[in-house]
Amino acid sequence: MRNPELALVVKNLTKYYDEKVCALKDISLSVHRGEWITIMGSSGSGKTTFLNIISGLDRPTSGEVIINGSDIARVSTDELTRFRRENIGLVFQQFYLIRYLNALENVMLAQYFHSMADEEEARQALKMVGLGDRLHHLPSQLSGGEQQRVCLARALINSPKLLLADEPTGNLDKANEEMVMRLFQERHKEGYTIVMVTHDPEVAQLADRVIHFDHGRILSEKQNGVRCVEAKS
Amino acid sequence: MADLVNSSLDIHRKGGSQFWAYGGNILVLPQGSPSGDVSFIVEGDMSRLEEGELAQSVTGYLPFLYNQAEINGQKVILGGTWLDEIPELSPWWQITGTWPQGRENTRDALVGARAAEKLHLEVGDQFIIKYGDNQPSFNVAGIVTTGAAEENQVFVALKTAQQLTGMTDKVGLVQVSARTVSQPLAQVSRLIEQNIPGTEARIIGQIAKAESQVLQKVQLLMMLVAGLILIASGLVILSTMTTTILERTKEIGLMKALGASDRRIIALYGTEIGIVALVGGILGYLIGFLLARFIGQQVFNSGVSPSILAFFASITVAMLVTFTGSLLPLYRAAKVNPSATLLREE
């Protein structure tokens, strides 16, 4: 059933690797439109697997992942690819910019795969993240913070319904971390739905909701700093 | 590979032109002596070509006497012949200057185009031919272009060559032009051998046939080598492309994460491979052509002509080999798993 208020609904999500290793076990959660949730947890807790599945990069073993009313766990590979380019914006810890393309071209690449490259639009996206004077710089000529901002501009260029970030400040110093998080806060105010994986409690507290994963399960959930869900032992 | 294709495509033409450069349709050669010494035809015997039954068939003949002499300190092949008969029996010889007149002409010489270039001689120049102690002077009456080995030679009147080398009344070979209306060429050939004892009259067609068989074998060998090179190239491309795709796994993973379909990935990298193959094919043809020309120069004494067929063959083969060698790597590129390459559980 479709609830227009919900950007993402996950029901009984389970993921096994090689039919033996359990990465996610019976996860259920919902994310409202415009909500910012942060997923925390120790290494191997399943948070990146969760991000992979809700971004359409991987498929669950069982369960439902409903985005925009359709269960992406049950669509074909081609439909999943189309879903990804039309609905998801990804921000990576390692930025993953193409080294021989400049900042502008890296952003335009996302437009190219989505529909049609528009240089002016890409230029505006880079100006929005404060890189109006770095348009023609190659990734190697940019600092880590600047590279992450290019990555953010690339993620936002097609106006995704879900902005997913995997440790976006993991490779940044304090100053750059603050600058990048300020950009996330601005996007949040603009109404973007954000799902972010992080180890950093300071980053996590900026979100509306913090969900702790442990051994593939939801351990606890805090809404605006108040614990609201506790896993049954 | 382009060099081999160029050479093998041109080998028949080049080999043929080498052969037909003798002119006429029968070549009269002295029979080899049992002792292995160099044999000659007696010049006086040639008049028998105009006698009896042969007179009806033989339309013309041209004697040649070849020796090695020295001009301007460089060794050259000196040919003695009836200079005034050349335009009639070898009409494809092109001359800059004038044909020398008279068979007893001791003044004029014809110089092959390449020899003239090598010896820095021009029409009207005087030069000395050194043979043993003899050093007569000659005038360059004309520079000849034949498309074959004569371009590296210098020609004087037969009489002059005989006097210079001390081979009075001797001839090395005779090029005979015979009609085949009254009797077949084989019959004419037999008649020549009967009328001029100690000679062997070879029909040029038979020589060409033997030569053609050799050329076919050389061509087959070249094609075989080209085939092996193609297989080796395919394997090199396979390994290079596999390495390239492995190195670019993250880039491909990112593109897929951004929404690129398998078909789009194949089209993108396929285009890149196609451009590389096209440039490679053009470069391969150019380098191959230059190499083939060099080899043609060394082996046939004349260059290999550019072939449009070899040009398109080079590009087509480059495309085919590159794409065949890239099929597996392209498939692997399309199947890159973005989640495994970009986002890994820590």
Quick structural summary:
Chain A has 233 residues and is of the alpha/beta class. Chain A is 32% helix and 30% strand.
Describe this structure in words.
The complex is a heterodimer of chains A (233) and B (346). In chain A, 32% of the residues lie in helices and 30% in strands. Chain A has 233 residues and is α/β, with parallel strands linked by helices. In chain A, the strands form 2 sheets. In chain A, strands 6-7-8-3-9-10-11 form a 7-stranded mixed β-sheet. A 4-stranded antiparallel β-sheet of chain A has the order 2-1-4-5, with helices on one face. Chain A starts with 5 loop residues before the first strand and ends with a strand. The mean pLDDT of chain A is 90. By secondary structure, chain B is of the alpha+beta class. Chain B folds into 2 domains: 40-197, no CATH class; 217-341, no CATH class. Chain B has helices spanning 2-20, 54-57, 86-89, 113-119, 158-165, 185-195, 204-247, 249-257, 262-300, 308-334, 338-341, and strands at 26-30, 41-42, 58-71, 74-81, 94-97, 108-112, 126-130, 137-145, 153-157, 170-171, 173-178, 199-203. In chain B, strand 7 and strand 8 form a beta hairpin. The chains are: A alpha/beta (233), B alpha+beta (346). The A-B interface holds A 23, 43-44, 46-49, 51-52, 55, 57-58, 77-78, 81-82, 84-86, 90, 92, 96, 98, 109-110, 113-114, 154, 166 and B 250-251, 253-262, 264, 338-339, 342-346.
Features:
heterodimer; A: 233 residues; alpha/beta; Rossmann fold; seven-stranded mixed β-sheet; four-stranded antiparallel β-sheet; 11 strands; globular; B: 346 residues; alpha+beta; 2 domains; six-stranded mixed β-barrel; two-stranded antiparallel sheet; 11 helices
